[in-house]
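[SOLVED] Need 3D model of a two-part complex

Original post:
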Amino acid sequence: MDIFLQQIVNGLTIGSLYALVALGYTMVYGVMKLINFAHGDLVALSAFAGLTIYTSIFSNGGTSIVAVITVFLFTAMIIAVVGVLLERFAYKPLRTAPRLSAVVSALGAGLVIQNAIMLIWGPNMKIFPSDLFPSTVYDINGVVITFTQFMILGLSSILMIALYLFINKTKMGTAVRAVAINQDAAQLMGINVNKIIMIIFIIGSALGAVAGLFIGIYYRGITFDMGWMYGLNAFVAAIIGGIGNIPGAMFGGLVLGLFNALISGYISSAWAETFTFTLLIVVLIFRPTGILGETVAEKV
Amino acid sequence: MRILTKVATLVALSVFLVTAGSAVDVIKIGVQAPITGKYANEGQSIDNGVRLVIDQINADGGLLGKQLEVVTCDDEGKAQKAAICARKLVNEKVLAVIGSYTSGATEAAQTTYYRNKTLQTSDGTSDSLTKHKYWTFFRNSFQNSAQATFTANYFVKEKGYKKIVVISDYSSYAVGLADSVTKAIENEGGKVIYQGKIKSGTQNFTAVLTKIKSMNPDAIYFSGYYTDGGLIRAQQLQLGIKADFIGGDSNDNPDFMKLAGKSAEGTYMINFPTPDFLPYDAAKKFMKDYNKKYGKDPASVWALMNVDGLSAIVHAVRETKSLDTKTISNYLHKLKDFPGITGPVSFREDGERINTKFNVYQVQADNSYKIVNK
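Solution:
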């Protein structure tokens, strides 16, 4: 039984990272009907930027709560700015172009970011210091949870709840939902669509930045091409949950993380990806709009 | 009549001198190594090492009074290129070939050297290299199965592990080593309770490790590379698995310690001694000379192994005073404890280097190594 519970804890940890990244995909898709394929590379960029910020400000190796908060805030800000620039230069000029052009532009932007990381930081693996978070381990009846895992689960839950409240309970959130339903109508109602899209990119990129930092802190080794793997998994999570749907992305991320952990633990890690994509196909066959996706009325 | 004899003798003598002078003036030594491509730093180290030693021999008056000349051919670590290199070096009439670095490239060239009676010495570890028993081939490193036997003996006899878990990634090298180690442990009477595989580069190994936790092993052996090994070690301790962690030769890299962080302390590594750990004066001198000439250290111990292969051949030429490869080979097959820079060099009838020594290192709190085996 503890083995099963331990696998659940492992799965939830990686699942909440997928969920944070998936939110970036789903929010952009919901508002712009665009798959932002560069999002995974923004996650990778945040891990590298965070490492550089940490080592340049706190080079004495000392760690404190102030240091960690500074690194998270600075990195989230930088990645948010990069996200806004990405939208401004790669997507905005193509807003009225056919959707395929925007997707190709997104793939191109992803390659640009990935290669920029390689040119700036080099092709070798970079390694996070191991003392950013205390290495405390909590043992609850044989089920082990580390402080880092606890922080990942805690902070990502807080961020997701905050996002849910922002979208559903505030005036700005209402505007975001309005733009998602119909951009032209929203504009006629006096909503600044450009501003809303900018906010979407700021929030999505900042959440991705948090996920990127957690990946660095939790796994330590970061490579310039790791964005692709996390991006792909998060994209699958967003689709499973129903792309465009915010609770769907959170749910999809957690489901995917649990599913992966259980398949790796009880069948084989070599089969994990095969099962992931089989799950995706099964979900798409029986619920084409995702598990939490709404059934879309056919327009005649 | 007497004049005729004199003339004939003179002609014969001059012809002999001319041929001797032009053809055997220099002795050519071939280097077949990956100078470019994925393993370029290893290939370049081998070439640099060989050239360093040859320069020293030439400065000391050469071999049998003749100067040595190096002919390098880049095989890029690929089998197709290796076959081309073999032809090229044979056409250059080299006495012996040093290399290649990878077992695959070595195997592809082996038969050509054998058919053309050209000596070859390589650091490839694949067991199949000495399978044909070619008299021209000499391995200057160790067999994978030798590492496996050493590992099994250490686990079962010295440490007395009862429950051993063996993990590998999916590469043919790591799977081969893991299989050999498992078989060797069973031959020693030990028990491998689980043989697991991880996907290299996935970073999250907690699923497999959680499964292992329920088996309560004494030891976890990982045959893959350091990029995964460091993370497996860190996640093992996070999950509270108290088993010893033992890494195969590919875990021996400074990045292992960085990835594992504080968890690196207490890890065991099994490998051939790394260059800075070779206790011999000749090795220290070689490292110093190498650094002086090229401004850096050789990439790893493999270059030094190949240099030992070369030195053994040079030694055999000096002792037999012959450039006939069969004579040299016969001498080398009986070579015992020639003082090489990676330790005593002895060859078996099939060209296998015997009595290679492995060490078990334990990582200390400051990430330095300590030799812990008997």
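Edit: The longest strand of chain A covers residues 137-140.
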